Every structure is written in structure tokens, then in C-alpha cells.
Amino acid sequence: MASLRDIKSRITSTKKTSQITKAMQMVSAAKMNRAEMNAKAFVPYMEKIQEVTASIALGSNDASHPMLTSRPVKKTGYIVITSDRGLAGAYNSNILRHVFQTVKNRHQSDDEYAIIAIGRVGRDFFKKRGMNVILDIVGVADQPSFADINDITSKTVGMFADETFDELYLYYSHYVSAIQQDVTEKKLLPLSDISTSAKLTSYEFEPSAEDILEVLLPQYAESLIYGALLDSKASEHAARMTAMKSATDNANELISSLSLSYNRARQAAITQEITEIVGGAAALE
């Protein structure tokens, strides 16, 4: 049995850990609320730009653009959004496991694909396994602005335009609720299946539909990446909040168990001391 000092030391260290995880849970909860608001606030913009893009792409017979046209696939690009830090439960591992299995099942050679990693965890995961990471960005803010990722989104869309990639997929964690985040795969480019659930509004295009598509489609693709990042940040904070809550609960259970063991050991020590005193007194008589 451990000594009283050892048990007391474990109780003290566990209490300190519990205080840290409780603080991290509260911080993540505050960040999650703000990230959820940001993600929801971006939805109306995405719906409107999707409606306008679909109206031009589907409603105009003379409108065409390379980003709307499928071509023979020689190389596939994968945008993977993870976090820069751990302590978020299975948030990162679920995404990385899914992407890793997908890449291994689809491709026989590293020349057939390339990875754009947003987040330090994803970047380190793929580089450690010798996978083809051609672009990466780390240090994205907890409440990101479009300017934070404008460089990598424009480069990524440009790579599809110059045929470095023939198709582009996006992987991220979709925020459903504070306790549910789903790994999501979305085909980003080409935009061959672009559609809208709303009734298409009639627009007049000036100077022409093709000129508008030339500007609008890259912005739309970049907005899809930014929207996924906002969604992913909300999922990250929710996953970290849940993980820290579980850690705090486990620490409290361990403290209770150690306190019980400490009291039993202390009672046993006191009983032994009393027995020794009584035995000594009886020997003197």
C-alpha cells in the first residue's frame, strides 16, 4: 500500500490538473459560442453566392468556365483542415484517419495526389508518413478572418485553373452540436454539381455571364474553403470543451478514490498507533 505522503501528493497533483482542465473547458466553451456564431453568420452569404453562381451556370446556355468542366483525372488535390493543438479528443484523429485511408485506397503512387494541410497536426501527420504535402498553413486564429487564409485559398484555386490538379476535395469536421461533429468530404472542384435548393432568381448579367463567372467562380470556391474553416473551428472548440469536461470529471473521480484510500490508510495508521500504545501500557503493568 502507498504511504500517506504518496497518496497526499497524488491528490494534490490531481487537483491541480483538474483546475487546469476546468479552465480549459471554460475557455473552449466561450470560443465555441463565438465560433458557432461566426459559422452561422457566414451561411446567408454562402447561400446567396451559391444562388447567383447556380443561376449563371444553370440558367445561361452560353456561359462556360474551366472550373465547371470535368476533365480526365491525372492528379487529385486534398485540402485537409485540422487544428494546431491537441487535447481535443478524437477531433483530429477522425479526420486524419479518414483522409489517410481514402488516399491509400484511391492512389497507387505519390504522383497521383497532393495534400494542402491547414493546421499543424495534419501537416505533421502527413509529413511524418512521407505523404506529398505541397502547401500548408499553421497558426490560424481561433476566430479566423478571410485574410488569414486568402493566400492559400487563391493558390489552391489557381492550381486547379492551371491544371496542377484535375479535381480537388475538401475534408473537415462539420459542426452539428456541442457533442456531435461529423467528418465531411466535399468535392470542391470542378463545380460540376453546383446546385441550390432555393428557387432560382432571374438575373440580368452585365457585361456577360462568362465575364461574371470569371470573377465569381474563384471567389465562390475560396468561400467554400473559408466556410469549411469556420465550421471546423466551431467543431474544434466543441471537441476540446467535451474532452476537457471528461478530463475534469475523471480527475474528480480519481480525487474521490484517492481521498478514500488516504482516509483508510490514515485510519489504519492511527489504529496501529493506538494498539501499540495499549500494548506497551499492558506490558508495563
Automatic annotation (TrEMBL):
Taxonomic superkingdom: Bacteria
One Gene Ontology MF term: proton-transporting ATP synthase activity, rotational mechanism
Bilayer topology annotation: Peripheral membrane protein
Keyword check for Signal: no
Pfam family, one: ATP-synt
GO CC annotation, single: plasma membrane
Keywords noted in UniProt: ATP synthesis, Cell membrane, CF(1), Hydrogen ion transport, Ion transport, Membrane, Transport
Keyword Membrane among UniProt keywords: yes
Gene Ontology BP terms: proton motive force-driven plasma membrane ATP synthesis
Subcellular location: Cell membrane
NCBIfam families (alphabetical): ATPsyn_F1gamma, PRK05621.2-1
Family to which the UniProt record says this protein belongs: Belongs to the ATPase gamma chain family.
Subunit structure: F-type ATPases have 2 components, CF(1) - the catalytic core - and CF(0) - the membrane proton channel. CF(1) has five subunits: alpha(3), beta(3), gamma(1), delta(1), epsilon(1). CF(0) has three main subunits: a, b and c.
Physiological role: Produces ATP from ADP in the presence of a proton gradient across the membrane. The gamma chain is believed to be important in regulating ATPase activity and the flow of protons through the CF(0) complex.
Name of the protein in question: ATP synthase gamma chain
Organism per entry: Bacillus canaveralius
Biological classification of the source: Bacteria, Bacillati, Bacillota, Bacilli, Bacillales
